[in-house]
Design brief:
Chain lengths: 284, 351
């Protein structure tokens, strides 16, 4: 009896989550229909114009899609040289040692810092550095936002990579060592190739996280509605335009913002499912 | 988002109503309003004073001007607050006659970050050209021409604007539309625009922060924020030709002109000699006949009482203390006439 009750409770809880996700998708689609009907789905995605002037209203998502992908991919690139060594340190060299436990919990702490704190750090510390280095007149832009994003996603990339690296069977590594391989050769020829697709999945998940980040990016990217043409250019992301303009938006503009939300939802869902697929292949 | 804000206000209202019944006698009324965030610091204080004086509670939700008007139209609040008056079309959409009551005045200041520049003079055309990207350096000959005694650096100007839709942007661009014909054609007046140059930040604190942290930046900031934070801001040339800074007197002076009897007017680019050119009213909007939606007479009397209290010297003195400007005499006279025109079932409430 108790068992049955527990089971139905689990079913209800799981069902509720599905229902919530479905409801969210439904209301996003419902809210964005107006914008898609007015501008056309393809036009909405391929237009970079964002003109709220009454009578000339024209909204397109391209500058925000490009800004989002640009910052997230560059952040991913920046985070690899930091997160991969951390993963090797924790999962290979000092696997199971106290120092690895300490290091990994400190890295995990990075994931717990609220994004507004990263934003403030970027605004007051990183931005002046970029200005004084002469890369950029005012310090806002893709580069500043990407650097902060990269730090934010390091824990996501490294902790999962650590898992996959430490899962490499010891027999294989011992075999390599007995053939006279050095530490570096074992990592390059044995550990990384075997853990490779797992690490790939870890980075994809980190990318998904970078795509949706809002607060820190808004504070640093400059919020200009254009397609960024260089690392030092200002731009805007999908999450940031929604957060900025939702408050006073109505009509077609509101619908366009919801449509951007829907696109972001689809992009993130797509990226997460790629990561899940890759991981399932490894685990089975 | 907005819906949940309404629900929250309603819930808060109900909660207060619940508390009330337990402790006080039944004569007290709960009023609720929603709308503009610009006058919120002022409203918070003046509403509290009103509650202390009369016992009537006032709940105010700063959900934005658009949201405030929508809540009034949905009749979920007793009054809406807005930084922009309703257009003729919007008036028709309200279903019944509404009146605009100006509650205080504010301004938009041009805050800048230039080391060693204590005083900077600007004109409407110069501001428009800076925000259009036609003037890009601080030592541009046109800026130098009106600031002959100032040592202007050879620095790039970084214009900062609001990334969120805002009444402050509306007032600022309304002024530029009047002051510069190129701006009127290319940009117009809106709550958010398609800006050709510059960077954007969210809210007054965001713009003020970006300006304070960026060498050579200029940004427009609500006076209630800028005056409270004491940030350096430019003297602007008004229509009469003199350069004025924003303070309570110069802002009030902008409304010391002939005003339409319904007070639906933008007072930017005022012709008054002492006026600060980017000044504005903020309004509370209520239905002219208060007997709708089963509202009691006590509710209607409390609403009008609140409006009357805010526009009395008592309420207006508070405005100056929190860096808004009080209504000048002519505006005050008009406002009192409007408040007296509010009725309950056709009977005037205030005699």
């Amino acid at each position: 009896m108790k068992d049955k009750l527990f089971k139905s409770f689990l079913f209800a809880a799981a069902g509720l989550v599905l229902l919530l996700a479905g409801g969210m998708f439904y209301s996003l689609v419902g809210g964005s229909v107006n914008a898609f009907r007015h501008f056309g789905l393809v036009d909405f995605i391929t237009t970079a114009d964002w003109n709220p002037r009454t009578g000339e209203e024209r909204y397109g998502a391209l500058s925000f899609i490009s800004g989002t992908l640009f910052t997230a991919l560059f952040a991913l690139l920046l985070c690899i040289p930091f997160s991969l060594p951390v993963a090797l340190f924790n999962g290979e060299y000092f696997k199971g040692k106290k120092i690895a436990v300490a290091a990994s919990s400190i890295v995990d702490l990075l994931a717990g810092i609220p994004s507004i704190v990263y934003g403030l750090w970027g605004f007051y510390t990183l931005r002046p550095l970029i200005v004084s280095s002469g890369l950029n007149e005012q310090g806002f832009g893709i580069l500043t936002a990407s650097v902060v994003l990269a730090i934010m996603i390091i824990p996501y990339a490294s902790s999962l990579s650590t898992e996959f690296i430490s899962m490499v069977p010891n027999d294989l590594k011992e075999g390599a060592y007995s053939l006279g391989a050095t530490n570096l050769e074992v990592i390059r020829r044995v550990s990384l190739p075997i853990a490779g697709s797992g690490i790939f999945a870890a980075y994809i998940l980190a990318l998904g996280r970078a795509l949706g980040e809002t607060m820190a990016v808004t504070m640093l990217i400059g919020n200009t509605n254009n397609i960024p043409t260089s690392l030092f250019d200002t731009g805007n992301t999908m999450a940031s335009i929604i957060a900025n303009q939702f408050g006073e938006a109505d009509g077609l503009k509101l619908s366009s913002l919801i449509a951007i939300g829907l696109l972001l939802f689809l992009i993130t869902a797509g990226i997460n499912s790629i990561a899940k697929l890759v991981m399932r292949k490894i685990l089975h | 988002m907005k819906k949940s804000a309404f629900l929250f206000i309603i819930a808060a209202g109900l909660l207060f109503a619940g508390c009330k019944q337990g402790s006080e006698s039944s004569e007290k009324v709960d009023l609720s309003g929603a709308g503009a965030t610009f006058p919120q610091p002022y409203y918070t204080i003046v509403f509290k004073n009103y509650t202390e004086k009369t016992g009537n509670n006032v709940n105010y939700g700063g959900i934005g001007s658009g949201g405030g008007i929508r809540s009034l139209k949905d009749k979920t609040v007793d009054f809406g607050a807005s930084d922009a008056y309703l257009s003729d079309n919007e008036l028709k959409d309200m279903g019944a006659d509404v009146v605009h009551i100006p509650t205080c005045m504010g301004a938009v200041v041009l805050s800048y970050n230039l080391k060693d520049v204590k005083e900077l003079k600007l004109t409407g055309q110069l501001i428009a050209d800076i925000y259009l990207g036609k003037i890009t350096k601080w030592n541009d000959s046109r800026i130098k021409a009106i600031n002959p005694d100032v040592n202007l650096p050879n620095k790039t100007i970084t214009p900062v604007y609001r990334s969120d839709g805002s009444g402050t942007t509306f007032v600022f661009t309304d002024y530029l539309t009047k002051a510069d014909s190129t701006w009127a054609v290319a940009m117009g007046r809106e709550k958010s625009l398609k800006w050709p140059v510059g960077i954007a930040a969210k809210g007054n604190p965001g713009v003020a922060g970006a300006v304070a942290q960026t060498d050579g930046a200029i940004g427009y900031v609500g006076s209630e924020y800028a005056l409270a934070m004491n940030t350096p801001s430019a003297l602007l040339q008004n229509k009469a030709g003199s350069f004025v800074g924003a303070d309570t007197e110069s802002i009030s002076a902008a409304a010391d002109a002939d005003l339409p009897s319904d007070m639906r007017t933008m007072i930017t680019d005022s012709p008054e000699a002492k006026a600060y050119p980017i000044s504005c009213f903020t309004w509370i909007i209520v239905y002219k006949d208060q007997a709708y939606n089963n509202r009691s007479k006590a509710q209607a009397e409390a609403t009008v009482g609140l409006l009357n209290y805010i526009t009395d010297p008592d309420g207006q003195n508070v405005a100056a203390k929190v860096h808004y400007a009080p209504l000048p005499e002519k505006a005050s006279v008009n406002t009192k006439i409007i408040i007296k025109s509010i009725t309950y079932n056709g009977e005037p409430i205030l005699k």
